[in-house]
Structures are given as C-alpha cells and as structure tokens.
C-alpha cells in the first residue's frame, strides 16, 4: 500500500486521468493491410430512446481523445449493446478492415498454463488494466480505416480498436514487453489482466489441511 500511495499520481482512477503509453513502451500501432479499395457502409440505425446516452458517450470519448474528426473515404457503422450494469457500450463494426488485414499469428497464453504458473505461491493477486486498449495509440496512417458517423459528424479512432484482427496479439505483446523484467518470476500476463505472484511456499512440506491429497510438486518428487 505504501508503494501505491507513493505513486498515486501515476494511477488513473477515471477515463479523464488516463493517458497514452510512452513510445518506448509501445509505438503507435499500424494495422498492416493488403491492397484494397475503400469501403462505404451505411450506418446502422440507432433506436431513438438511446440516442441521448450514445451522444454523451461519443462526447466523452472526444473529450478524452479516443475519437477525432475524420475526412476519410472509408466508412464503417457502429452500434450499441447494453452492459450488465445497464449502460451502453459502443461497438465498432470492423469486419471490412479485418478482411484486408495481414494476420498476426501471435496468441495469448493458454489459460491452463497461465493459472498453473501461480501454483506453489504463498499468495497471489490479479490486477485489471483499466481501458488498456485505450492507452495504445493508433498510427495516423491507420486511423482513416476506422471512420464512422455520429451525431457530431464523421469521426475516427485514435486508439487500438477492440475487435480488430491483430489487437489481441498486439496488446499481449505490448504488456509482456513492458513487464519483461518481472516475467515470469513475479508477473504473468493474460491480455489486460496482470497476475502478481507472491513468494514461493512449500507449505512446510505438509499436506494441505483442506485436501490431504494435494502436496507441493517439490514434496511429490
């Protein structure tokens, strides 16, 4: 807790406080594409009852720099889905850009291997990175591919888009690069979840009281 208190100003507690990663941690991401023609897709009609909430969401994202004005010849639709808390989430239709994207074959770690890496630790924690995709800048040359229509006119994304073909691989690579000095002894990364590993423990070489069939690997050997 003392470390958190000391670095309090480095932690974002709201979207307004969130900033971009330094380029030494992750250069602006450029979506690699094959030769293609620009697409123009019609907007998906937004139900009138949710337009005020959508408008406020777009206004907030303009304010925080996630959206910027666009004069691109591309156009893709957006739509909204309800989150579990009843609020709206804006979803960008990226099927057209995904069709022409050169695939990055990188994958996140296998979930079983991720969990197993924490075995034998006296304690562990899990930290969720708030809006991690929104901290990775999208290269200026790539932004026109993401243009869409809003009540405020034509806008485009300025950050790594969720749902894009290579976003998962790009984000996983970015986080492991940033935390490379702590992997794999202290930290394990699974997308925007950072697993924090506590000290190693052998439980005094005793069987666990909760389950006398479980022993540490070292004790089994």
TrEMBL record:
Any Pfam family the entry gives: RVT_1
InterPro entries (alphabetical): DNA/RNA_pol_sf, Rev_trsase/Diguanyl_cyclase, RNA-dir_DNA_polymerase, RT_dom
CDD domains: RT_LTR
All copies of domain Reverse transcriptase, residue ranges: 83-195
Classification via PANTHER family: REVERSE TRANSCRIPTASE DOMAIN-CONTAINING PROTEIN (PTHR24559:SF444), TRANSPOSON TY3-I GAG-POL POLYPROTEIN (PTHR24559)
Protein name (record): Reverse transcriptase domain-containing protein
Source organism per UniProt: Austropuccinia psidii MF-1
């Amino acid at each position: 807790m003392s470390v958190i208190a000391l670095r309090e100003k480095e932690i974002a507690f709201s979207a307004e406080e969130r900033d971009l990663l330094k380029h030494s941690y992750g250069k602006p991401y450029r979506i690699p594409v094959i030769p293609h023609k620009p697409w123009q897709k019609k907007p998906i009609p937004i139900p009138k009852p949710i337009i005020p909430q959508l408008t406020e969401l777009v206004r907030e994202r303009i304010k925080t720099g996630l959206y910027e004005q666009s004069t691109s010849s591309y156009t893709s639709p957006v739509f909204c889905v309800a989150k579990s808390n009843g609020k709206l989430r804006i979803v960008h239709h990226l099927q057209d850009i995904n069709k022409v994207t050169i695939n990055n074959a990188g994958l996140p770690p296998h979930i079983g291997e991720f969990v197993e890496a924490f075995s034998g630790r006296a304690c562990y924690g899990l930290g969720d990175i708030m809006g991690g995709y929104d901290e990775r800048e999208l290269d200026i040359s790539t932004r026109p591919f993401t243009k869409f229509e809003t009540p405020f006119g034509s806008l485009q994304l300025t950050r790594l888009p969720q749902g894009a073909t290579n976003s998962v691989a790009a984000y996983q690579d970015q986080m492991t690069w940033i935390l490379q000095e702590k992997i794999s002894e202290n930290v394990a990364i699974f997308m925007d979840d950072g697993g924090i590993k506590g000290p190693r423990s052998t439980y005094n070489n005793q069987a666990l009281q909760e389950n006398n069939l479980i022993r540490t690997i070292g004790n089994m050997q």
